[in-house]
Design goal:
Number of helices: 5
Number of strands: 7
Radius of gyration: 15 Å
Distance between the termini: 29 Å
Helix content: 25-40%
Mean pLDDT: 90
Length: 159
């Protein structure tokens, strides 16, 4: 997997709302990039609902939210519509993004449940990896964002 301190691999995709998602275009903002195994499954639905219900809080803490699974874009769109998800969900059917982040389970060929918090410059700041305890991703994301706030635009960055 990608390690803390690494530059996050760039990717370009289309999200479930038909919007382009270019990781490099999100530079200047912190990004919470989470990988999950499969839409419409119990654990992944719970995880996505938790992120959905806290999307505005995450944005208020200065981060953009992007979810990725190996589902097709069509399946991601159906899932987003059913679950009323408004953040970017990306279908990675060809597994290009998942391979770049080295999050695929061997043999199963679906994503591990891994969340990366990326700095505004695209560097991996923090990694969360819990396979079963799906709520831990949101809890750990919120804890990290609260404990590591970005400086306000008019404040100098800490040395």
């Amino acid at each position: 997997m990608i390690a803390i301190g690494d530059l996050a691999p760039d990717f370009a995709a289309t999200d479930c709302h038909g919007q382009p998602v270019h990781l490099s275009a999100l530079r200047g903002r912190r990004v919470v990039l989470f990988f999950f195994p499969k839409t419409f499954t119990i654990g992944c639905t719970i995880e996505n609902r938790a992120f959905r219900d806290n999307h505005e809080l995450i944005r208020g803490l200065g981060a953009e939210l992007v979810g990725v699974s190996v589902d097709t874009v069509k399946t991601q769109c159906e899932f987003a519509q059913q679950e009323d998800i408004h953040f970017a969900l990306v279908g990675d059917e060809d597994r290009r993004i998942s391979r770049a982040y080295d999050v695929l389970w061997p043999v199963l060929n679906v994503d591990r449940r891994v969340t990366y918090i990326l700095s505004p410059s695209g560097i991996v700041e923090h990694i969360i990896h819990h396979e079963v305890r799906v709520y831990r991703h949101l809890d750990d994301v919120l804890r990290y964002l609260r404990q590591h706030p970005l400086p306000a635009a008019d404040e100098p960055a800490p040395a």
